[in-house]
Amino acid sequence: MAYDEGLAERIRERLGADPAVTEKRMFGGVAFLYEGNMAVGVTGDDLMVRVGPDASDAALARPGARVFDMTGRPMRGWVVVDGAAVAEDGTLGAWLDEGRAFAASLPPK
């Protein structure tokens, strides 16, 4: 499955200057890791965001967000955001900040 390279490039522009951020191809898409912990990614046309279990319910209440479920088993602490819902840079930035903040709360790998 191909992924939205335009969305990935927008993420690179926002996160690329941070030396703690690395990029890795995963899940047929691309993931962005903070100190080795996945923060966000692009799969298809959508944004995956690691928000953490405590923030899942609030994240799912936001426009365009849904449960992250690639295998038939929903992953608590992760959400998928419809690509159309992150068309605005401010909205995308808020999701990226949230994903990076959660990844930064974990021990580096």
Name its key features.
alpha+beta, Aspartate Aminotransferase, domain 1, six-stranded antiparallel beta sheet, 28% strand, TfoX_N
Largest sheet: 6 strands, antiparallel
CATH topology: Aspartate Aminotransferase, domain 1
Tell me the span between the first and last alpha carbons.
28 Å
The number of helices is 3
Determine and state the CATH class.
Answer: Alpha Beta
Shape: globular
Spell out the blueprint of helices and strands.
Blueprint: H1 5-15, E1 21-26, E2 29-34, E3 37-43, E4 46-50, H2 56-60, E5 65-67, E6 78-81, H3 89-104
Helix pairs in contact: 1-3
InterPro entries: TfoX_N
Organism: Streptomyces davaonensis (strain DSM 101723 / JCM 4913 / KCC S-0913 / 768)
Protein name: TfoX N-terminal domain-containing protein
Explain this structure.
This protein is of the alpha+beta class and about 110 residues long. The termini are far apart. It has three helices and six strands, in the order αββββαββα. The chain has a six-stranded antiparallel beta sheet with strand order 1-2-3-4-6-5. The protein is globular, with a radius of gyration of 13 Å. It has one domain (about 5-105): Alpha-Beta Complex (Aspartate Aminotransferase, domain 1). The chain has helices at about 5-15, 55-60, 90-105, and strands at about 20-25, 30-35, 35-45, 45-50, 65, 80. Helix 1 packs across helix 3. The model has no long low-confidence stretch (mean pLDDT about 95).
